[in-house]
Amino acid sequence: MQSETERLQAFRQLRTDIRGSESHLIVGIDIAKEKHYAFCGTATGKTLCKQMIFPNSKEGFELLTARVEAVPKLPVMGMQVYIGLMCVANVLTI
């Protein structure tokens, strides 16, 4: 298992490699209990696909995979896909 220092170094290297690259596809997913929202873009800031909504199920993730594979820039030789998850729990206190 990597130490915290090694993990931080690996993250910084990945960030450096991706920044400004046309050979990386970034998929951001806002996860929720019943359905998720996804976005695809390049590291240069170009939006390729936004507001993909899919259910929280095996079939939903298969749908996401199919949609990501259908993104126009994906066939570029050697393009790597990076997926990031975000979970924001809203807590209401009264």
Main beta-sheet strand count, sense and barrel state: 4 strands, mixed
Find the structural class using helix and strand composition: alpha+beta
Topology pattern, helix = H, strand = E: HEEEHE
Q: Oligomerization state of this entry? A: single chain
| Named CATH architecture | 2-Layer Sandwich
How would you portray this structure in words?
With 94 residues, the protein is α+β, with helices and mostly antiparallel strands. The protein has two helices and four strands, in the order H-E-E-E-H-E. The protein has a single domain, classed as Nucleotidyltransferase, domain 5 (2-Layer Sandwich), CATH 3.30.420. Helix content is 29%, strand content 33%. Strand 2 and strand 3 form a beta hairpin. The longest helix is centred in the N-terminal third of the chain and has 15 residues. The chain is globular, with a radius of gyration of 15 Å. The mean pLDDT is 84.
Task: Draw up the topology in text.
Elements: H1 4-18, E1 24-30, E2 35-42, E3 47-55, H2 58-69, E4 80-86
Parallel strand pairs: 1-4
Antiparallel strand pairs: 1-2, 2-3
